[in-house]
Write a structure and sequence with these properties.
17 strands; globular; alpha+beta; binds 4'-deoxy-4'-aminopyridoxal-5'-phosphate
Length: 332
């Protein structure tokens, strides 16, 4: 769960310029603060072989999704695809980072000029669109496995908000789901039910699973979900209100390349409970085994061999150790 101490970097890319971290501020009258009108991406940069320098994983695909999110909210981004890809590379270089997380963010801001003190109101089109790219260290984090709780909140439905968009306001839905899982984690911790490793980190953390409006499994609060059953992989389809994860897409391709059948289909909660293995995927979380759902152990309650193999393969791919996927890496 998201509790990672942030270490600030020197620079943030803001509207085409590098500014100091301390100076990247916005006004409280910004439209995004009141109405959630922002879109963003989460991208990882890894120290990759063979050259031994930072490389951004699937940069072009993330920036493409960024533009799709913008389109869904009719947000005109004042920079091209190429300019934003270059901004991501620039912010890694400018901060002297090796492995990091990159967060492009576009939001409806606030402007005052000679004629006006800006506008208040829902109409998003009167606010200028600002774009920032932030990069910071963010090692593979947290517990090595997840216990999941099915949320009582339904994942946003496609006629309510566009699940394909990675939009700031939409994450209120994920936060509600996470709050439920977090409450269970707090109670379990108080009861001494959470094991800790030698370094003092929890070995498991509680995460949320959301169902779609039809009652089928959708995804986690910030991750996609897969099951392994009888030697094949299954994952919910786009129409079950998922964000089309780029890690999900990478795992589908990697799993097929090593010979697994991967089926995108509706999955019920009961199928999760009796799956051989369950895992979650996301840029930040990478590949995380799920060892328990709603107090039922998955398989034997330990990370499974297929999950472990795919996790290892994924690490090899993102670190440039598998030339077959070299086109997924953009050198910084
Ligand atoms: N679903 C949601 C709701 C997310 O926020 C994320 C993280 N971006 C994912 C899935 C995983 O997507 P990706 O693999 O592209 O990071």
């Amino acid at each position: 769960m998201g509790r990672y101490p942030l270490r600030k970097t020197r620079h943030i890319w803001l509207n085409g310029e590098l500014v100091l971290w301390e100076d990247a501020r916005i006004h409280v009258m910004s439209h995004v603060i009141h109405y959630g009108s922002g879109i963003f991406e989460g991208i990882r940069c890894y120290y990759a072989e063979p050259e031994g320098r930072p490389a951004i994983f699937r940069l072009g695909d993330h920036i493409r999704r960024f533009f799709e999110s913008a389109k869904l909210y009719m947000m005109d981004l004042p920079f091209s695809h190429e300019a934003l890809c270059e901004a991501c590379r620039e912010i890694v270089r400018a901060n002297g980072l090796r492995e990091c997380y990159i967060r492009p963010l576009a939001y409806r801001a606030y402007i005052e000029d000679e004629d006006t003190w800006g506008y208040i109101g829902l109409n998003p089109l009167r606010s200028p669109v600002h774009v920032a790219v932030i990069a910071f260290e963010f090692p593979s984090y947290g517990a090595s496995a997840y216990r999941c709780i099915t949320s009582s909140w339904t994942r946003i439905a496609p006629d309510i908000l566009p699940p394909l968009a990675k939009a700031s306001g939409q994450y209120i839905n994920s936060q509600l789901a996470l709050l439920g899982a977090y409450m269970v984690q707090t109670m379990a911790d108080r009861a001494g039910l959470i094991p800790y490793d030698e370094a003092g980190s929890p070995e498991v953390s509680y995460e949320a699973i959301l169902l779609d409006r039809r009652g089928f499994v959708s995804e986690g609060a910030g991750e996609n979900i897969f099951i392994v059953k009888d030697g094949a992989l299954h994952t919910p389809p786009t129409y079950s209100s998922i964000l089309k994860g780029i890690t999900r897409d990478s795992i589908v391709r990697i799993a097929k390349d090593v010979g697994y059948d991967v089926c995108e289909r509706d999955i019920t909660l009961s199928e999760l409970y009796v799956a051989d293995e369950v895992f979650m995927t996301g840029t930040a979380a990478e590949i995380k085994p799920v060892v328990e759902i709603d107090f039922r152990a998955i398989g034997d309650g330990k990370p499974g061999p297929v999950t472990e193999m795919l996790r290892q393969k994924y690490y090899d791919v993102v670190h440039g150790r598998d030339p077959k996927y070299a086109e997924w890496l953009t050198r910084v």
